[in-house]
What does this fold into?
Amino acid sequence: MRQIARAAAIGTGATAAAVVATGGVLLGQARQARRTIPMAEAPPPRCDGVYGVKLPGPPLTMVILGDSSAASYGVHRRRETLGALLATGLSRRLHRQVRLHRFAVVGSLSAGLKPQVESALEHRPDIAVILIGGNDVTNRTPPGLAVRYLVDAVRTLRAAGCQVVVGTCPDLGAIQPIQPPLRWLARRWSRQLAAAQTVAVVEAGGWTVSLGDLLGPRFAAEPTRMFAWDRFHPSAEGYAVAAAALLPTVISALGAAQERRPVLGRGEGVRSLPQAAQEAARHAGTEVSGTQVRGRDRGPAGRWAQLRRRAFFGVGTVPQPGSTADSPTLEGTA
It folds into this structure.
C-alpha cells in the first residue's frame, strides 16, 4: 500500500510539475506575443455617411458594431474600411442609398456592446453587422458570459425591428506572432466561442457568418498581404475578403436576395443548430440561419438551422487615379 501511495504521489507530483511547466511556457508565449503585437495607435478612419447618394428613394440604414475588426483598425483610407465596403456593395446590389453609422470600438469586449447598441438604436437601423469575440479570447472572458452580452445585444436590436448579422469570433490560432502551444489553445478557444456565438445568435433571431481563420487559406498563404503592419489585424485586402464573405448574408437578412429554390452544395443543408454551429466554426465563410422542417422550428436535437457556404462576391484591386497603390473593391456588385 505504501508503495502504491508513494507511486501515486510521485505521479501526481510529476503531473503537477508538467502543468506548472506548461503554464509557464504559455505565460511566456503570451508575454512575447504582447511584446510583438504593437499597441493600437491612431484610430481607424471614419466611414460614416451616405453611400449611393445619386440613387432614388429613402436610404437603408446600416450600423457596424463590435471591436477593432468591425472598426477596421489597420487600414488608412475610408474606402478600405469594412463598413465602407459593405455599404458600397449593398448600395450597388440593392440599387438604393445606404446610410452607414459605425459605433465599433477598438479593443471592445462583448461586454462593451450595450452602449454601442443604445447609440445605434437612436438611428433606427435596418441592419446591424457585429464583429466581436477576439478580445474576449485574449482576455479569457468566460465564453458563457461573453455570449450572454452578445445575445442581449442581438435581442435588443431584433426587438427594435433591426436585422442582425454577426461575424463570429475569428481563429486567433492564425495570428503569426502567437506560437505553439499557445496557438493551439487560441484556436481551440476561438472555435469554442464561435460555435457558442452561432447557437445563441440564431436562437435570438440573428444570422451568423463564421470568420474562422480570418477567411481561410489565403491568409495563411499570404500573411504579409492579408494582415496589416501589426501582423494581428487584417490589411485592406483582408477586410475586402471579410466584406465579400459577409455581404451575401447581409443581403439575405434584409430579405432582398432573389433566390430560387437553393441547389445545395457539398456540406450544406439543414442541421440541428448545435451541429451547424460546430461545422461553421471549422469552415470559414459559412452562414448559419434559423429555418423550419415540416413547419416546425425545432426537432429532437433542438432548433433547426440552415447551413450554407455562400459564394463570395469577387474581390479585386482597382488602381485609384493619382495613386500607385491598389485599393480593395468588391467586384460583381454593380
Observations:
- The CA atoms of residues 120 and 321 lie 35 Å apart.
- Confidence is low (pLDDT under 50) at residues 1-38, 314-334.
- The first strand starts at residue 49 and ends at 51.
- The chain has eleven helices and twelve strands.
